[in-house]
Write a structure and sequence with these properties.
The protein is of the alpha+beta class. It contains 5 helices and 10 strands; from the N terminus they run αβββββββαβαβαβα. Strands 1, 2, 3, 4, 5, 6, 7, 8, 9 and 10 form a 10-stranded mixed sheet that branches.
Length: 214
């Protein structure tokens, strides 16, 4: 759980709360400040823009994204216009300047994603039954991580450790792969984590465009 971060509640720019949060494909939403062309790394902490997601029962919604800092990471929260927490994730930028070129054929720098959660999804350990069910929360958080990876010159590389129940999403929707690595004389069983996953090169552009992108 992300904690110890102060987020300033967002007060919409005179939007009607109901109409700004749930969209039935209305052209009036074209002017919303989304993250499409935002340099997220340059944004100050607090509200940084909106993301478009799908409602499980049909239609679309625009939710607010807040940025904050943890002790060694960046933290992103997705909230509705009632300040309900819908989803969140931590990201750690792992820029590696010196690495073994024999072991690593390409730059191993990456963004590590941790504690990615969608509290609106039924049947998950963190489900909040008081929330509307929003789709694409995990996708948008990964797209934010990918944007930060690009901005930090980590080539869009992303890694994470998946929960067992989330692994089909990462494998079949995001098209991540298991990273089976071990080194030296350390027994394989102590180094290999079947839930350690990475975003391969051929999955980077599809992720950036998934469900319309940021």
């Amino acid at each position: 759980m992300i904690s110890n971060v102060n987020f300033t509640p967002y007060v919409g720019n005179n939007f009607d709360i109901k109409s700004s949060n749930v969209n039935s494909k209305s052209p009036s939403f074209c002017g919303l400040q989304t993250l499409t062309h935002t340099n997220i790394g340059m944004c100050a902490d607090g509200y940084i823009g909106k993301i478009r997601v799908r409602l499980a029962e049909g239609g679309e919604a625009f939710l607010n994204v807040f940025k904050g800092k943890g002790c060694d990471c960046e933290e992103y929260k997705i909230m509705d216009d009632f300040n309900n927490l819908i989803g969140e994730a931590q990201i750690k930028i792992k820029k590696i300047l010196n690495y073994d070129h024999y072991e690593h054929k390409t730059d191993p720098s990456h963004v590590f994603v941790d504690n990615l959660r969608n509290y609106s999804t039924p049947g998950t350990p963190y489900h909040n039954s008081n929330l509307v069910y929003y789709k694409d929360i995990g996708t948008r958080l990964l797209q934010i991580a990918q944007r930060r990876s690009d901005e930090a010159n980590c080539m869009g590389n992303i890694k994470l450790i998946s929960k067992n129940e989330s692994k089909p999403f990462y494998k079949n929707v995001i098209h991540m792969r298991e990273e089976n690595t071990f080194s030296g004389n350390t027994p394989f069983r102590f180094m290999w984590n079947p839930n350690l996953m990475y975003l391969p090169p051929e999955s980077k552009e599809p992720l950036s465009r998934l469900q319309g992108g940021l």
